[in-house]
Structures are given as structure tokens and as C-alpha cells.
What does this fold into?
Amino acid sequence: MAALRRIGCLLVPRFAAAAAVRAEPALASRPLAVLDDARPARMVIEASPEARALGVAPGMTEAAAQARPGGVICRERVPAHEAAAQQALLEVGVVHSPRVEEAGPGEVYLDVAGLGALFGDEPALARRLVQRARDARLPTRVGLAGSRVAARLAARRAAELACIPPDADALHLRPAPIALLDLSLEMARRFARWGIRTLGELADLPGRDLYERLGPEGARLQALARGEDPRPLDPWRPPPRFEETRELDWALDNLEPLFGLFTECAEGLCARLAAQALAADRFEWSCRLTARPGETPRTVDGAFVPPVPTHEARAVMAVLRATLTAEPPPAAVTALTLRAQPVRVPASQEPLDGDRRPSPRTLAETVARVIALVGPDNLGVPVLLDTHRPGALRLEALQVPSSPLPSPPGGRGTETFPSLPAAGEGGTLALRRCRPPRPAQVRLIGGRPVHLRAAGLAGPIVASAGPWRSSGDWWLESRWASDEWDVELADGTLGRLAHDGSAWVLEGIYD
Amino acid sequence: MAIATESLPPPGWGLEGSAASLLEVFPRGQLSEIVGPRSAGGSSLVTSLLARATAAGELVALVDGSDAFDPAGAAAAGAALRSLLWVRAGRRPDRACRSAELLARSSGFAWVVLDLSTDPTEPYERRLSSLGAATWIRLQRAVRDMPTRLVLHAPRHLAGSAAALVLAVARGPARWMGAPRPLRLEGLGSRVEVVRARTFPPTSQPSPRAKEWEITWRL
It folds into this structure.
């Protein structure tokens, strides 16, 4: 006889708000709205029951939420607080069951079969789970049932805890809405077209016809609707700690021996990562500095993100060397630490049509060597910022796709010859930016620029158009405004000038 | 007889075909060169290459020797910036060349573009002159037998015989909207000429007429 399957669901309703209250207990029982971090118009993403009672709802702007009477408190979402709350919820599960699955933010499943001898009957276990979660400052609902879907349903509908008896999952699931199955948009639309709204209606459909229309996914969804959940839990394990530390008997004030010790740490870390088929997508280093007697030792630290997850000690050291050479520790070092944030890099099939996909290892090493040449701040993928300020951007690490890159139009066989683009074909005119913008002297007649003098560029202006006025961040200290002009010099040079109210600058040259 | 409608080309097919042809001009495993004075359209041609290559899903590295690249303009031209590695070499042509050599040797990038075009500050021009012929030979050898296209953008012909393809970009007339008083800069005309094409197969040599063509860059 198959062993009886029993699943527990720990569910934290309104998880982001619960995480905020956990980090700041004074917010408990207060009307709280959690905001996203999109500036300037931040939106409410979650509201506590007290705030909902005042009319605050997700999707409102921060200003609209604060305009509600009753003193709504707004807090920005903090991913670190949510990660800590999630970790606490997982730990509540782990101390009760060896098999725990992380299903999403504020949602954890655990295998509770056979725990009766340890914690008593199921209601007693559920009460204990609720109490432990409350001790971790997480208002959690607990549901126990024979499948994940039923346990989640029980937790959603419970005030605090609910247990569905064995073999009663299907009965309890029948009236539940079909949205409980986390359907894809396409599948939800299809069921809506068919008029299927509850799990009972889905369970009653002829299985063969459903399979013919939806394939294996249809059969899986119907099994879930009937309370059948054969998939085993995907066990969560506490993240391993990848850290190497060297405590020194004497202080080091020279970079080369320091690099030697960091190399030892990097090789040790990378060997451990490789042994577990892992790589690291972030490395953190720190150096403890010497201090005078009676003073607390100071620490300098930093972090870097390799362009691709790596366990190559050489690539790690290339970046670390460049970083420490550019900015050496300000005093002798008495201890050093190197940490790695592990990630699992899935194995992938090599492409059959050649080597179009870069080798992550070679690429990581190459990029590390280029970083050593130009510095870590001068290399990356440009990301445009959400502003109209000219030239606003930041650099991010290159993420190489794990799947093969698609072939260009025409494929490999078309590269034999050189057909030229059609006459008259066009594109977008590019601007070569001056970084920083060059100070310029501009003579005006009738409010229009007629002569330009800047570093390496001078002459009469034969045509101009403008001013194109732009401004932004007027609500911040860093507000900006400028009038831009497109100009053509007598020698044919096309440039862009800008005037910020006090001085002229050359922003760039059209080329 | 019914016409199989699926066999008809989708809208815009012809445009895509001509865009792809521009990419095919540059040979794989060779050093190519785009040369031209400022405001001639060389950077627009480079941006167009970046846009078309990244849109085709290829990984591109841009080594920016004069820190003049405008990502916003490239995005407006259709470049997928997430597939573009931008290396800012800080107006050090020697570092830029070394970086391009490393990237070309890695075979990880479908395109490596080395932009040494000058800006209005003149000391940079003197540094360019200090780069010896060995630099270009090294670059050419770095990319040889690799699936990478290495493109050098410079104010004048620098790479000598190491370049398999040299495109000279000449300045055409600027286009202004509104007369007699200009209201808006509309764009720029460029004339591009193939002045050296070592790797073109003899059977498919472009006709003399096709070796020179006009491009209009629009703002």
C-alpha cells in the first residue's frame, strides 16, 4: 500500500507588507502601504488590512495613498528584508520536516507525513507551525492536506490553520476557483472560453478529450484539480557558505604577497565550487587593517560581478589585482577574506553549426584581462536610465545567453559574397558625445549662434536650429535644464551645442 | 489552383534583406576598416552595424578609444544593448588596440569594433600616429581563422595592408528642414566607397557602379 502523502503549506498573506513590519515592528497594526522603487511616480504594490480599510489599494500612486485620511504610512520595498523574511519562513519549515520546498515569496511547502510521533496530531502540528512562524514575526496561515493545491487552498481560506482530512482533497477543491492552479495567461483564457471556472468543473471534464486538446499539460492540471499531486517536493537546502579567510601573524604592507594570499583563497574557493558543479556570480573581498592599540581595527572591502558565473581562479584574480592595484588598502593588512555567491550553471548542448556561442570560461577570462587593462568601471553593458538627461546611463555586467545565439539572417552559407546595400538606404544619424562636454564660446546674433570656438573646433556657423529645450529632476537637488542647438560649421562639421543658462558647451559631433 | 499564401514574404522582408547585405560586406576572420573625417557618417555606419548585428542576436564588443559612443543613439537606431559589451579605453589608443586584440582572440564575439575616430581634442591624433604597423598586423593575426569580424573605425587609413576591406566615408550635404531659415536638422548624406577589398571573390566583384553608394542618415 502506498504511504499516505500529507503536505503542509505555510503561507504569509501580503508578504511584502509582512516583511516590512518584521523589519520595523512599530508598523504592526498601522495602516501601511508598500511601494515599488520606480521613481518618481512610485506605486503601491501591497497594503496592510488597516490601510485597505482606509481605501488604499495596489496600483495607487504614493501621493494618492498618502492623501487618504487616517495617516497611511508608506515604505519602499526592500528586497533584503523580504529575503530575510523568506529565509525565516523556510527555517520554520526546516526545523519541523526534512523535506521543504520553496514555492515563492511567502509560500513554503513541507512534507508532514509521519511527524505525528514528534509533534502530535495534525491540528497540534499546525498550531505549532503557526506559533513558530509568529515567533519569527511572520503572520502565517497553515494548511494541511494530501496535495500542494489543497494545502494551499486550506491555508488561503483559513483564519490561522486548517486541515483537510486524508482522501478529502477532491471534495474540498471542487468549489475552489480555477485560478488556484497558477495557470498561464493562454490556458486561463482557454478555460474561460470553455466556461470552466472551478476546479470541480475541470475535474469533471472527460480526460481523453482534455488530453487531445491540451496535451500533457491538460492532464496534469486535471489531476491537480482532482487532488492528485504525484510530483515529489523539490527540497530546499540552506545555501552553502563559500568563504576563505587568512589570519596573518604579521601585517602585510606590500601588494604582491597580498595577491599571493588572495590567489590561495581564490583557488580554494574555486576548487570547492567546481567540486559541487557550481560557479559564482559575485565575489566579495575584505581586508582587516592594522590599528593602534586601543583602536578598533578598520576594514576595507569590495565586491565584483564577473561577466559570466565562473569558478576560474585566474579570472577572479585578474579582477581583484586590477581593483587592488588601482586602490590599494590604506594601511597594512592583518586578515583577508574572499567570499563567493554560488549559482548553478545548467549544462547546455553545444551548437551543431559551429562555435557561434561564446565559451563562458574563455569569455570570463578575456573580459577579466580587459578589465585589468581599462579598469572595472570602464567595461560593461550600457543600460539607459529612465530620464531625459543627456548621456545618463550605467554599466552592468554582460550576461551571456546560455542557449546558442541565433544565426544571422541568411545563415552561414551567405557570407561568400559581398553584396552592397541598396543605393539610398539609410539609417540613424549618430552623435559622438564629448565626455565631459567641452566648454565653448558662442557668439549670438538675434538670439541665434553664428560663431563657435571650442577645443579643436572653431569657425562660423552657417546653419543652426533650436533651441530644443529639456529639463528634469526639478524636484531634486540635481535638477537640470538645457537649451540644445544643432549647428553646421562652414567646414561642414555638424555639432550639438547646449546652454544650461550660464555657459555654452559642445555636447557632441554628429558623424 | 489555390495560391499558398504562406509562401509570400512577410511585410518588410525586402528591407531586412538589404539590411543583412550590409553585414555581409565585412568578412569574417579579417580586419576591416571604415575611414572618414568627422561629420562624414562613419560613426553612423558603425552604429548601424552594431544595431543590425545585435538585432540579429549576435554578441558585439565595442572598444571605444575616444569615449564618444552614445548608447541612447544606438538604442534609437535599433541596437539591442544587452548584447553589446562597451569597453571605454579612456583615450588611450594603445589600450584600445590591446583590448580589441584580446576580445578578437577570444572568439566569443561575432563582431569586435575598434573605434579610434578622433574627437576635437588634438593630442589624441598624435597618439594615433604613434601606433606602429605591428599593431595592425597583430590585430589582423588575432582575428585570423576566428568567426569574428574585426572593424576598425578611424579618421584616416591606418591599418595599411593588414586591412582586408577599407571603406572610405566622404561627407555629403547636411539636410536641413525649412528655408530660408532652418527649422530642424533632418540628417546627413554620406558617400561610401570601397577603396580596398582583398577578400572579394573575383567572380563576384562588385561592379564599379556598386563600389560607391550614397547613404542618408536621418536624425
